[in-house]
Amino acid sequence: MRPEERLELRKLSEHVPIPVKESLEEASAKINILLQSYISRLHLDCFSLASDMVYVKQSAGRVMRALFEISLKRGWSAVAARALKWCQMIEHRMWSSQSPLRQFRALPFDILKKLEKKDLTVEKLYDLDAHVIGESIDFPTLGKTIYNLVHR
Question: Which domain holds residue 90?
């Protein structure tokens, strides 16, 4: 832990979705915060943290895939499912609780937040027509766009 990193790590720890229980002085807390920051696409100001982020970015996917493979070979289905979920979150830089519609740049961020807040999953949206989708997000003109994206 470098002295110049403490302040930024403290700020980042307030913005990551999963609370960090360890002391910020521990290496595991730093890695935890950097991994969550990477998935959440948070911006780093500290140069030394940015260089550590490159290492986390390169290693996290490989480590999770290795854990997935180990758990598969040992027959630990629950661990394998969780490791696979983390592999996908790291690869796509998107939390599993977020809508898969985030991968499309055609939707504004506030509309995506509305969809996630109302718990309108892709499966639920698939059964609705464009007009009902537009009504449910209070933005009727985007109903057809969301309908088309869901059916892709």
Answer: 1-95
